[in-house]
């Protein structure tokens, strides 16, 4: 267990996620073909698959089967993909580039992109409810958790706070609340759902895993803010520097670049600490947290 | 049982649905307040509540509790409300009037309306997964059914076909496929979920209920098309005549007004026939189908 080098595990798991998504999404020529084609365009062929990776890594804590983790990883990734399609729409960020390609509404059209986001969200819940991935009671808990993480008190709520905060100076607690919802909630859900797909955790284990999941979500966002102001559009595959251009509050704007980096290291250390209780079973999660911390794109 | 006059039952059940929605939706002043306020605006204070009424009526077939039916009715109604908010957006129907009031993006703004639709959809699934409304296995079936009915192979798919069909002459089978998805799938889900919230049905009962549910969905749409061309904007509370103005395919355009009415009567008769197996337990469903057939708004 865990003897495979991390880079290899990551590549294999990303391929696995890609192929599971391809299998679960409706065929591109099934009616309505344009919508299904656009759903596949918006979901397949790109992305770091951070959320499926987290689900698979967390599943190692509880002995979840790879098949159950495929379902969980795809469900969370579909929610993520839906949020990107809607965030890119003209009435939101009005962005034209995503994963190095035209955004969904540019490649297709705006009404189709709206329906793509709507339908990807629905499909995430359909997947979690229709596939046999554990005890029914546990599946219900997973659905409730994913829904809470992505709705108005989670991801969509963070997006609403973000909209309201453009051009306003935020304090660090306000910024953390926004990101805890906007990015953190879904990262946290990926970790918890991955673990829930296996054997039950003790209360102590669950608390620690939750602490890890929250730190990982925040870490992801802090590094994202750093990359938005230091990396190029070509490297990111999405428009760089757009947060600053849009006068959006970021950790770099709030803390400065050096302090933002130091904060990322701090979060990483606390995340590692939270995983100590799991011993070797947490190797992949630790490696992933390192990857999230040091990624260049 | 069923001795209450229909009009009274309907008023009481509509009130019950309204108050359950008000209870399940986040408070309008809870963070993010503008989003929650807009979700309440888009859902409360209007609407015929046809889907909750159908769920409650179908629940009488299987002895479902009113509390479980509140959850089911609200979940389906939230999906319906989300679809209206997104359909009214400028990139879709670009409509300004709904239930006699400004549409959500007019009253608030476009990004908020987008998030309102997204969040209402999420909340529907959160409700069905987090409330105790039956055996967990049955709840999973209900979630899978609602998701299938509202996604790309259901309501959203029908919307995509509708978009693609504007200005094109459709045959009756093509028109029926579009409406079976766009309106019918969610009406059918309301009926089936209501029944699923109680004791199990036999295979024969379920087949007949499904036949009723499909006829009721089609009936609702045919009558909607008739009203769109015969009723006034003031009576409907939404813009009248807009299907014809937008050159959208409707039953009236396809069959003419008189034949559309005759087709509605035919569907009504077949729906009644499908309910015969349930005897008196189907009284409310039959009354509702009459109401759907003869409504003036």
UniProtKB/TrEMBL annotation, chains A, B:
Pfam family, one: polyprenyl_synt
TM annotation in the entry: none
Transferase recorded as keyword: yes
Cofactor dependency: Mg(2+)
Signal peptide stretch: none
UniProt key word Ribonucleoprotein: no
Alphabetized UniProt keyword annotations: Isoprene biosynthesis, Magnesium, Metal-binding, Transferase
Domain of life: Bacteria
PANTHER family, alphabetized: FARNESYL DIPHOSPHATE SYNTHASE
Matching NCBIfam families: FPPsyn (NF045485)
Family: Belongs to the FPP/GGPP synthase family.
Protein name: Polyprenyl synthetase family protein
């Amino acid at each position: 267990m865990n003897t495979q080098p991390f880079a290899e595990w990551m590549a294999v798991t990303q391929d696995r996620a890609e192929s599971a998504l391809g299998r679960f999404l409706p065929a591109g020529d099934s009616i309505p073909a344009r919508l299904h084609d656009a759903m596949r365009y918006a979901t397949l062929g790109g992305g770091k698959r951070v959320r499926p990776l987290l689900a698979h890594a967390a599943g190692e804590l509880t002995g979840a089967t790879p098949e159950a983790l495929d379902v969980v990883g795809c469900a969370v990734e579909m929610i993520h993909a839906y949020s990107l399609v809607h965030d890119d729409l003209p009435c939101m960020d009005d962005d034209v580039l995503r994963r190095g390609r035209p955004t969904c509404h540019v490649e297709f059209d705006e009404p189709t992109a709206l329906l793509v986001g709507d339908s990807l969200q629905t499909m995430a819940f359909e997947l979690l409810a229709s596939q046999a991935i554990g005890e029914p009671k546990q599946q219900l808990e997973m659905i409730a958790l994913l829904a809470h993480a992505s709705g108005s008190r989670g991801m969509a709520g963070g997006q609403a706070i973000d909209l309201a905060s453009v051009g306003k100076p935020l304090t660090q607690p306000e910024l953390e609340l926004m990101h805890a919802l906007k990015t953190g909630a879904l990262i946290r859900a990926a970790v918890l759902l991955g673990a829930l797909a296996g054997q039950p955790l003790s209360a102590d284990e669950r608390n620690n895993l939750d602490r890890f999941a929250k730190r990982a979500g925040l870490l992801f966002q802090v590094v994202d803010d750093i990359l938005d102001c230091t990396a190029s559009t070509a490297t990111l595959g999405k428009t760089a520097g757009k947060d600053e251009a849009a006068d959006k509050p970021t950790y770099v704007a709030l803390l400065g670049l050096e302090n933002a980096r130091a904060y990322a290291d701090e979060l990483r250390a606390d995340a590692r600490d939270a995983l100590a209780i799991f011993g070797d079973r947490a190797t992949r999660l630790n490696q992933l947290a390192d990857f999230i911390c040091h990624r260049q794109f």
